[in-house]
Amino acid sequence: MAAAAGARWNHVWVGTETGILKGVNLQRKQAANFTAAGQPRREEAVSALCWGAGGETQILVGCADRTVRFFSTEEGRFQGQKHCPGGEGTFRGLAQVDSTLITCVDSGIVRVWRENDKEASSDPLLELSVGPGVCRMRQDPAHPHMVATGGKENALKVWDLQGSEEPVFRAKNVRNDWLDLRVPIWDQDIQFLPESQKLVTCTGYHQVRVYDPASPQRRPVLEVTYGEYPLMAMTLTPGGNSVIVGNTHGQLAEIDLRQGCLLGCLKGLAGSVRGLQCHPSKPLLASCGLDRVLRIHRIQNPRGLEHKVYLKSQLNCLLLSGRDNWEDEPQEAKKAPPEDTETDELWASLEAAAKRTLPDSEHTQGALQTRRRKKQRPGSTSA
Amino acid sequence: MAKAGGKSGGGGKKGLKRKASAEEPQEAAAAEDGATESGVPPPKSAAFPPGFSISEIKNKQRRHLMFTRWKQQQRKEKLAIKKKLKKEREALGDKAPPKPVPKTIDNQRVYDETIVDPNDEEVAYDEATDEFASYFNRQTSPKILITTSDRPHGRTVRLCEQLSTVIPNSHVYYRRGLALKKIIPQCISRDFTDLIVINEDRKIPNGLILSHLPSGPTAHFKMSSVRLRKEIKRRGKDPTEHIPEVILNNFTTRLGHSIGRMFASLFPHNPQFIGRQVATFHNQRDYIFFRFHRYIFKSEKKVGIQELGPRFTLKLRSLQKGTFDSKYGEYEWVHKPREMDTSRRKFHL
């Protein structure tokens, strides 16, 4: 109950392969499990997460049984679900615009649904066929009715859902390589760069490419390679000039998009990276993967691991709260006494490292850096 | 000084200890009274100036001498302490406090948060519905294909043959340069549940790839200390066709559980106790020791064992989700030496 009540203060929401949605509060070092049916079920494996309407109060959870469940962070429970049939495969992208829901599945069917919480599945408002083998569909945060899709042997396409049935931008494959062989396409993740029309993709052939629909060339404007393993996830850094990519070996790298060079790497992950997200203003990166651990890294000054949380199931996707204040709001007056005793019990039951308070602003960072260095594992918890 | 030099140079042994100790302060601090040379060794703490250490002596022979003398003294003191403690224990008799447990790397192991709690429901659900669920629900029985890397040499071939006698329902096939990715669909269509590939380098087997077949994880191990049957001393006769029992020791963490289940799913569920054969996978400090024994109970508590079969040691290098695909597959766990091997007391399995 305390977990459900404090769900709005969770910093990271993670979806797992067993169908559990986990909310992690890094301030209190707690992780809570939320399931729709009370029991974990592998059929409900979470494959896509996105924020719902109205700030960060609702989460849309896309499950493997083709239902989208609505989870309220205010109340800490699932509120309803919507079955979204059509096409085959799991959800590769979920987005929300006005009061409609956009879903994209593996076989390439993109559908726009009217968002009512009724169980009965109404017909989709719009249906697009994008091409088979889609790996990601991403919505442009600046123009919510534009989505980009890409996948294995499915080139990057940008669609305008209010416009025509044809894509607004269709990327062209790069030239044949030095052996005159066609370079295969495998777009694993797509991001829209802010304040421009550019898109960045990372591929399964360890390339990071930047496309510019405003320029006359449909081929990538910039191409950078990193590592030898497929890049699984990508996120933009707060500066907007670099991206962080993760591959199937758990290697995280920050790549500069102005120069096309590697800025640095982040250590710690042991398994394939499945989800990556950076905070919009703070230099924090949340990463989750198949090694069942959620890690929060600090990207600059200095680069390193901040938190590590062992969550017992394989993690598929995550959502990082973009709010600025990471401390819990002071509870409403009527709730204050019981909350205090509950948190007191929680503090007492927590094993070791729960005594330091996380920094809210920069002035305590200097002192806390050294303390963090002394500790072996800064703030690891278990659910 | 020449006389002193000659003495220490000539002797350097126990007989000249006293003189040498008397000479040192003379050389080290010239202000010492030279009259103490004859026989009375000055107390060490007063003789040496503070802050002096044996390593500051430039002369190697003398330095070595001082060090050996210091070492002997330390040893004597240690023996004396031990004797005293032993006397005290005997004097106390029954009331003596229990002997302190010696510190070993195993019992100093750093706390690992991934160690599985037997009452944990989430992990129990995860394990009940993972890729090995069909084996543990007794829906499938194992059928194993053993092969090697291309063009194996004698040792590897013999190891494969011996392994196939140890693991019931296993078949050895010669690898004729076939790609594993092409072998795997064929195995699946012929109902094989596991694939073992023994990798060979410079005529000795040094790697093992264990892939659970329909869609299961693939583990890549480094194999060392391989002993074939004829190299095992005091071994018993060849193993019979009975299904052996399986012992899995010390697989405590979540990763260890996955690997332990992988090994367990190689053997059929119903061990034939008449055969009295047991295959052991013992994990200690991230090394997995494989042994195959025949046991016999001589009385209620005494067992005699005979080692049959090959023995080898495995170390996990990576666990990949899905069947063998080292380039494009997703890894659940990869061993990264420079990141993971920083502490001697941290283990992953």
Automatic annotation (TrEMBL), chain A:
SMART domains listed in its UniProt record: WD40 (SM00320)
What cellular component terms from Gene Ontology apply here? nucleolus; preribosome, large subunit precursor
Extract the Pfam families matched here.
Answer: WD40
Localization per Swiss-Prot or TrEMBL: Nucleus, Nucleolus
Any coiled-coil ranges, and where?
none
GO BP term, example: RNA metabolic process
Q: Which UniProt keywords apply?
A: Methylation, Nucleus, Phosphoprotein, Repeat, WD repeat
Q: How does it assemble?
A: Isoform 1 interacts (through WDR repeats) with NVL; the interaction is independent of RNA or pre-60S ribosome particles. Isoform 2 does not interact with NVL. Interacts with MTREX; the interaction dissociation in a late stage of rRNA synthesis is required for appropriate maturation of pre-60S particles and depends on the ATPase activity of NVL.
What PANTHER family has UniProt attached to this entry? NOP SEVEN ASSOCIATED PROTEIN 1, WD REPEAT-CONTAINING PROTEIN 74
Any idea what this protein is called?
Answer: WD repeat-containing protein 74
TrEMBL record, chain B:
Its GO biological process annotations read:
maturation of 5.8S rRNA; maturation of LSU-rRNA
For this UniProt record, give its keywords in alphabetical order, as a comma-separated list: Ribosome biogenesis, rRNA processing
Residue ranges annotated as compositionally biased, kind Low complexity, are 27-37
Q: Which GO terms describe its molecular function?
A: rRNA primary transcript binding
Q: Where is this region: Disordered?
A: 1-57
Q: Where is the composition biased (Gly residues)?
A: 1-13
InterPro entries, A to Z: Brix (IPR007109), IMP4/RPF1 (IPR044281)
**One Gene Ontology cellular component annotation held by this UniProt entry:** nucleolus
Q: What is the protein named? A: Ribosome production factor 1
